[in-house]
């Protein structure tokens, strides 16, 4: 298994074939990774927070849960998960995030900028980027008021989540750039593409 490192506050994109598995690893702990998936044969089909949460009837997804596209097709299934808490509500951080939430005068381009840059060679434009599946992100939801609160990730060093592709996909991953999401430190993310087990 070849493990690839995504440097802090950066991103990458790559192809994932149907049946292959994607392992995303937090090597140091408390680091979020924004994940996107597009149909490799038609990039107008893209991972959908709305469809997925609607069909799951829950906010927090883990082993056994499918991730749906905007066309209600299953793109990925979660087959392993050592953390069990991820976010599918909040949009990728951007220059505007850092201006509006943090008051930065010279903001970083954020995960949105990293995703846009990584996906450009595949012909995917910034306006096509949806809400990401935010791996290891720990968003607390107040059941009475609906208030959202971003707490430190529950992931520890070496924790991982494993997805299995249900179609040919263009994937994008980041090592998240938002201070609050990562307990105020920026660390790398590791990932590996694996073949489907023979007995699967």
What does it look like?
By secondary structure, the chain is mainly beta. It is 12% helix and 32% strand. The protein has three helices and twelve strands. A six-stranded antiparallel β-sheet has the order 1-12-3-10-6-5. A four-stranded antiparallel β-sheet has the order 2-11-4-7, with helices on one face. The protein has a two-stranded antiparallel ribbon with strand order 8-9. A hairpin with a 5-residue loop joins strand 5 and strand 6. The two termini are 18 Å apart. The model has no long low-confidence stretch (mean pLDDT 95).
Mean pLDDT reading: 95
Report the total helices.
Answer: 3
Instruction: Write down the secondary-structure element order.
Output: EEEEHEEHHEEEEEE
The radius of gyration over CA amounts to 16 Å
Q: What level of helicity do the residues show?
A: 10-25%
Major sheet strand order? 1-12-3-10-6-5
Give the distance, in angstroms, between the N- and C-terminal Cα atoms. 18 Å
Percentage of residues in DSSP E strands: 25-35%
General shape:
globular
